[in-house]
């Protein structure tokens, strides 16, 4: 089952126009021959064919340039023919071939079976009907390969039924009913001193003498499932051929007979045509309006015959809800920011209900290839659920170039229902500027005066407009409310190269409490968060200023002190008589001058 799903995937590989596909069944240990179909414009003689193995273990390209290695691997390639000398389970998988300079590709699914495999019956490639007492020759499927290119010669051919001797040259002079069965045909080939075998099977069906006895249902197939819509009218024809007009063809619902009464919800019509050789019969099962009950039943078409009774059983299945094909992402005209020389992957995702729809990429008007060695390629994956098929085409740029920036890329969903597409472009990222605080410095100390207004700017640069710059007081956020004693203002300027940010911390009137706090300017960024912490310090009075103040104070106070002292002395002399001798001339003169100065004071 896994191999079949992979084959379906490869058949609808984007960018490839499949010519055809086929299944090849081969027994383990035997020779497998794969032929690439030819088509108009390419002939065997002048066309170069490229083979690709999409097996589970590996993917290898087979062409004439590696013939020595291929022979060592037991693989021979010449033009449209690929031969695996001894097929094993490791060779099982999908192979594709394409002609030179063509995007068309054909697919072959190789199935390798062991003798014990339950699926070995699929190796039956031909069937043969013969009639009793008549001569009969079995013709097994022959690859009809021209092996002269590799000097491969046919050694022998045998055809036998299990447990019985082989008929000479696969010929029955007078075939019997018991000769019916599965016959195995084996061809032996000689190459490079080794014997290699090829096996195919043919089913021999021996019927009574032709014209006299025949009874078989042609359609539908046994266990066939019919997709229907609820409440719809459905007609299913059961066709049979017989040689006797006494044979009967009719329908059963479960174990009950379906009637021919056309007024019933389910009934059948019967018609027949009698020719000279056979009688063609048709029993048409009619559902007037398909119901849930009809979906739950089995219906059997039965051919009743004196020679042989046969039947086929069919079922009805409700059609799945139709999902219109649509591209989910990317958006139309979406622009992707990229760096030059970087690896970029852009996924195009779509949903559909049809496994024949195709999702692929275009560069301008040219198809993007799936070759992963190219500078630009895409990968395709899909998941089939019960409700829808999810498809993804991943566009890969191994190393983004200037040319890639100048191209348009289109993801296209090709569908029989509706074709849709989205176009995207690449845009070079502007140079990245890491976020950083320019000033102040971390642990910087600012000298301030108590009761003064102070503004401290925190400046930063960044390249992202989602970055944030703010102040903290200790572990608490400083607010932007300008009525508070301490707040901050935020401004920014966006240039072509960078964003300049400023958070201004404002102290309306510096207090003692402000001097005891730490203040942190923080730059919050997805790339990197940074911060600086500052403190306030009260300004100290300088020694020079203090000395000058003292000197001025002395100049002012000293004359006043001397003047006051002499006034006291004079008062004491005058009023208390402390003098016991007459003052000398100098003293009297000094006293007079003091008295005169004092008398001039207002």
From TrEMBL:
Keywords: Disulfide bond, Glycoprotein, Immunoglobulin domain, Membrane, Repeat, Signal, Transmembrane, Transmembrane helix. GO terms for molecular function: interleukin-1 receptor activity. The keyword Signal applies. SMART domains: IG. The keyword Ribosomal protein does not apply. PROSITE patterns: IG_LIKE. InterPro entries: Ig-like_dom (IPR007110), Ig-like_dom_sf (IPR036179), Ig-like_fold (IPR013783), Ig_sub (IPR003599), IL-1_rcpt_fam (IPR015621), IL-1_rcpt_I/II-typ (IPR004074), Immunoglobulin_dom (IPR013151). Residues 1-18 form the signal peptide. The chain crosses the membrane at residues 544-572. It holds the Pfam family ig. Residues 14-109, 208-315, 324-425, 434-535 form the Ig-like domain. Belongs to the interleukin-1 receptor family. This is Ig-like domain-containing protein. It comes from Astatotilapia calliptera (Eastern happy).
């Amino acid at each position: 089952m896994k191999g079949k799903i992979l084959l379906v995937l490869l058949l609808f590989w984007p960018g490839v126009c499949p010519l055809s596909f086929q299944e090849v069944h081969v027994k383990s240990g035997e020779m497998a021959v794969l032929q690439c179909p030819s088509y108009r414009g390419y002939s065997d003689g002048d066309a170069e064919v490229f083979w690709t193995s999409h097996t589970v273990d590996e993917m290898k390209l087979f062409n004439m340039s590696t013939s020595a290695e291929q022979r060592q691997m037991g693989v021979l390639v010449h033009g449209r023919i690929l031969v695996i000398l001894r097929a094993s389970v490791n060779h099982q998988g999908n192979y594709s071939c394409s002609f030179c300079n063509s995007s068309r590709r054909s697919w072959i699914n190789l199935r390798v079976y062991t003798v014990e495999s339950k699926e070995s019956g699929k190796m039956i490639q031909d069937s043969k009907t013969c009639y009793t007492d008549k001569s009969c020759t079995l013709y097994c499927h022959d690859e009809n390969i021209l092996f002269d290119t590799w000097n491969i010669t046919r050694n022998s051919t045998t055809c036998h039924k299990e447990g019985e001797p082989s008929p000479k040259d696969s010929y029955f002079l007078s075939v019997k009913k018991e000769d019916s069965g599965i016959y195995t045909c084996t061809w032996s080939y000689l190459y490079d001193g080794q014997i290699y075998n090829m096996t195919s099977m043919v089913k021999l069906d021996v019927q009574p003498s032709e014209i006299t006895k025949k009874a078989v249902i042609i359609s539908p197939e046994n266990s066939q499932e019919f997709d229907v819509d609820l409440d719809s009218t459905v007609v299913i024809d059961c066709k049979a051929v017989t040689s006797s007009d006494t044979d009967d063809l009719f329908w059963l619902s479960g174990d009950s007979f379906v009637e021919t009464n056309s007024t019933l919800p389910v009934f059948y019509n019967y018609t027949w045509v009698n020719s000279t050789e056979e009688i063609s019969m048709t029993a048409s099962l009619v559902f007037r309006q398909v119901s849930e009950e009809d979906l739950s039943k089995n219906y059997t078409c039965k051919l009743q015959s004196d020679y042989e009774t046969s039947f086929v059983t069919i079922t009805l299945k409700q059609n799945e809800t139709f999902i219109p094909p649509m591209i989910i992402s990317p958006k139309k005209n979406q622009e992707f920011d990229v760096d030059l020389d970087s690896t970029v992957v852009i996924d195009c995702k779509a949903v559909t209900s049809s496994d024949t729809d195709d999702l692929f990429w275009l560069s301008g008007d040219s198809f993007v290839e799936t070759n992963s060695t190219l500078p630009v390629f895409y990968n395709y994956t899909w998941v089939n659920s019960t409700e829808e098929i999810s498809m993804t085409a991943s566009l890969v740029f191994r190393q983004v170039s200037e040319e890639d920036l100048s191209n348009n890329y289109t993801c296209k969903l090709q569908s029989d229902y509706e074709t849709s597409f989205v176009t995207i472009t690449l845009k070079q990222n502007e140079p990245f500027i890491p976020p950083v605080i320019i000033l102040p410095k971390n642990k910087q100390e600012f000298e301030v005066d108590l009761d003064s207004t102070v503004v401290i700017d925190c400046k930063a640069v960044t390249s992202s407009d989602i970055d944030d710059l703010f102040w903290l007081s200790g572990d608490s956020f400083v607010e932007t409310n300008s009525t508070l004693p301490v707040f901050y203002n935020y401004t920014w300027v966006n240039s072509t190269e960078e964003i300049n940010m400023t958070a201004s911390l404002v102290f309306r009137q510096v207090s003692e409490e402000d001097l005891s706090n730490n203040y942190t300017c923080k730059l919050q960024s997805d790339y990197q968060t940074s911060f600086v912490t500052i403190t306030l310090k009260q300004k100290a009075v300088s020694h020079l200023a203090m000395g000058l103040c003292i000197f001025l104070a002395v100049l002012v106070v000293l004359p006043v002190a001397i003047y006051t002292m002499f006034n006291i002395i004079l008062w004491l002399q005058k009023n208390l008589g402390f003098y016991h001798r007459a003052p000398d001339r100098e003293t009297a003169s000094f006293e007079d001058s003091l008295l005169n100065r004092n008398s001039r004071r207002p």
